[in-house]
Design brief:
The chain is α/β, with parallel strands linked by helices. The chain is built from 16 helices and 5 strands. The chain has helices spanning about 15-30, 45-55, 75-85, 105-110, 125-135, 145-150, 155-170, 180-185, 195-200, 205-215, 220-240, 245-255, 255-265, 270-290, 295-310, 325-329, and strands spanning about 5-10, 35-40, 65-70, 90-95, 115-120. It has a 5-stranded parallel β-sheet with strand order 2-3-4-1-5. The N and C termini lie far apart (about 75 Å).
Length: about 325
């Protein structure tokens, strides 16, 4: 058969599944009655598999063994499987989404010429792939809607594919009611808090409250997220005040240049003194919540209002934001 027999596919989970589906289709095109056997690397009977790979089937002229969770296989047994001469009509595919290129398994597969690398898509390539995926599901979203969907799924095309199918089910002729978008699309966990934190950092109260309404997160964790964000903004503000250019701030903070650019744009809207005061308030509110002195939702709203409401700040008031016993009741 012309299809390569042993093959390791690794990288982005969605692209790996696509590559596997395409490989299966090619194998079936050559041998429509191919048997497919799915195995798992963390529960692999290695001696038994080696015997099967070298023995022709009594019931099918063609077989396809798909091994998932390949990352759980040790390097030496994996090398033995790749180097094993397969019986005619036998195909072997290893699937390893998320496996790093530095893995010994990848090096072994490359040495045998049996590897397909599918790294995660980024930027416009990711947006283009998302648009194509939505079109394939007959879902119509504008560019802003595509970006919103990518944001809520954390750029995970596998999750986006599932959400696209859901949106199609609830759409009218493929057109999605954007008012129901937030209710229909599952948020990919903590990724969804970042747009909210950006709104708070930008000092936009209305946008912050809108973003907050879409979060499915505990107020205590949101307060902790704001405190972390304020800490980073304060560090960037101090470094900017020290006449340090943004390009040199990124390595100091251990962050990507694009993240620092985003933080710098927000930090420039606040003075270091005001950010310090906001950070003090966030820490104090967090402590009060844990002591039972204030309700989490009230503490969260107070912190958002403080950061997003501009007003003059007198010198030396950074530590004057502590809640009094009377106020906390």
């Amino acid at each position: 058969m012309s299809e390569l027999q042993p093959l390791l596919i690794f990288g982005d989970p969605f692209r790996c599944e696509q590559a596997l589906a395409a490989r299966c289709a090619r194998i079936l095109a050559e041998a429509p009655k191919t048997e497919r056997h799915t195995l798992f690397g963390d529960d692999l009977n290695l001696p038994g598999l080696m015997v099967e790979l070298q023995t022709a089937s009594l019931f099918a002229a063609s077989r396809h063994f798909v091994v998932r969770r390949t990352g759980a296989i040790k390097a030496k047994p994996f090398a033995l499987l790749l180097e094993r001469e397969l019986s005619p009509g036998t195909h072997l595919t290893f699937l390893a989404p998320g496996l790093k290129g530095t893995s010994p398994l990848i090096k072994t597969a490359r040495a045998c010429g049996s590897v397909q690398a599918l790294p995660p898509l980024k930027g416009r390539n990711l947006e283009r792939a998302a648009s194509e995926l939505l079109a394939a599901r007959a879902v119509s979203l504008d560019a802003q809607g595509v970006k919103g969907l990518l944001l809520r799924t954390g750029g995970d095309l596998l999750a986006l594919s599932q959400e696209a199918q859901k949106l199609h089910s609830f759409s009218q002729g493929g057109v999605v009611d954007l008012r129901a978008f937030g209710r229909l699309v599952f948020s990919g966990g903590e990724e969804s808090i970042y747009p909210f934190l950006d709104c708070v950092g930008e000092g936009d109260l209305q946008a912050s409250l809108r973003a907050l309404s879409t979060l499915n997160e505990d107020p205590v964790r949101i307060i902790a997220g704001i405190v972390r964000h304020l800490t980073r903004l304060l560090m960037v503000r101090i470094l900017l005040d020290s006449r340090l250019i943004e390009a040199k701030i990124a390595p100091l903070l251990g962050s990507s240049a694009w993240i620092v650019r985003r933080l710098a744009a927000q930090a420039k809207g606040h003075s270091a003194q005001r950010l310090t005061a906001a950070l003090d308030l966030g820490i104090d509110l967090d402590l009060e919540v844990k002591r039972g002195g204030v309700r989490p939702a009230d503490a969260l709203l107070k912190l958002i209002l403080y950061v997003t409401t501009p007003f003059p700040l007198s010198a030396g008031c950074a530590r004057q934001n502590r809640l009094s016993p009377a106020a906390s009741g």
